[in-house]
């Protein structure tokens, strides 16, 4: 094992971190503003991956299909989440967290069964577009797949756009205010229900985007949501509940310890991210950054 092998594994870990951050940031946004522990977030991630498969196949499975899926899959997931939010969630925001947790768990089962009914139980694959096939030579013996390089560009871009949304747009500022005191926001004439609805849809859009982006790198299959939702909740917890930048730090910790652990200690490498979570929560029980809860 040389320095190039380690650096290559770090780059793989950073690519994985991008997916974890995109999905976890959506979950953190919903947690921070709506106070909903959305267990169905992983199912929406899976729905985004399957939708990307269908769109890619419809448009021929290459470059055009990928770019249409990049836009269409997250928008479809956002539409599904909008319908669920307007029909069910908007009437239950004042209920206790346990009821909301059970509700979202029920939705995760529904979405899982719907995916199985529509796409079946077979593995699906989304081809990497031709423009991203190949490698970039970074150093003499260090190669980075072009699609991984694309993910490393998408990650900071999503983080920047999310920062703009939360801090610079009217909707983002109202959402932050509603997270602190929703009654006061409603008292000044703002429709809090629609603010919550748009925040919920934005968070679910990120879940769909994460599912679409991961689809060319793995086999799209039933159950892909289970491990992802567990990892996302752990990332949100160690970063600070509802803190977007905490989600980024948590994703970095989780993604890098996982990739380096597999390289250094293959048999038990999968344990290291969870060991890192235990260590963080031992010294910082409320997360690394300030929680909004």
Can you describe this structure?
There is one protein chain. The radius of gyration is 19 Å and the shape is globular. It starts with a helix and ends in a 10-residue tail after the last helix. Helices cover 72% and strands 2% of the residues. α1 packs antiparallel against α10 (244-264), α6 (170-180) crosses α8 (192-214) and α10 packs across α11. The chain has 293 residues and is mainly alpha-helical. It has one domain: Orthogonal Bundle (ABC transporter involved in vitamin B12 uptake, BtuC). Strands 1-2 form a two-stranded antiparallel ribbon. A hairpin with a 5-residue loop joins β1 and β2. The longest helix is centred in the N-terminal third of the chain and has 32 residues, at 3-34.
């Amino acid at each position: 094992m040389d320095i190039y092998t380690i650096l290559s594994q770090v780059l793989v870990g950073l690519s994985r971190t991008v997916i974890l951050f995109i999905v976890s940031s959506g979950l953190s946004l919903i947690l921070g503003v709506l106070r909903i522990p959305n267990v169905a977030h992983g199912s929406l991630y899976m729905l985004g991956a399957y939708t990307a498969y269908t769109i890619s196949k419809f448009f021929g499975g290459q470059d055009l299909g990928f770019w249409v899926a990049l836009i269409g899959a997250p928008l479809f997931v956002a539409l599904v989440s909008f319908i669920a939010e307007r029909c069910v969630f908007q009437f239950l925001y004042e209920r206790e967290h346990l009821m909301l947790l059970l509700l979202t768990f029920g939705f995760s089962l529904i979405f899982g069964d719907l995916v199985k009914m529509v796409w079946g139980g077979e593995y699906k694959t989304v081809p990497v577009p031709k423009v991203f096939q190949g490698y970039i030579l970074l150093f003499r013996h260090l190669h980075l797949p072009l699609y991984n390089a694309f993910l490393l560009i998408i990650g900071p871009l999503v983080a920047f756009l999310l920062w703009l949304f939360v801090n610079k747009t009217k909707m983002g500022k109202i959402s932050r205010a509603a997270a602190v005191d929703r009654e006061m926001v409603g008292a000044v004439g703002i429709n809090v229900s629609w603010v919550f609805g748009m925040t919920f849809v934005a968070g679910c859009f990120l879940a769909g985007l994460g599912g679409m982006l991961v689809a060319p790198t793995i086999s799209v299959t039933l159950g892909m949501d289970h491990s992802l939702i567990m990892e996302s909740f752990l990332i949100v917890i160690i970063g600070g509940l509802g803190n977007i930048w905490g989600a980024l730090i948590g994703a970095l910790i989780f993604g890098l310890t996982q990739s380096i652990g597999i390289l250094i200690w293959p048999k038990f490498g999968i344990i290291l991210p969870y060991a890192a979570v235990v260590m963080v929560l031992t010294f910082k029980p409320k997360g690394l950054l300030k929680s909004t809860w």
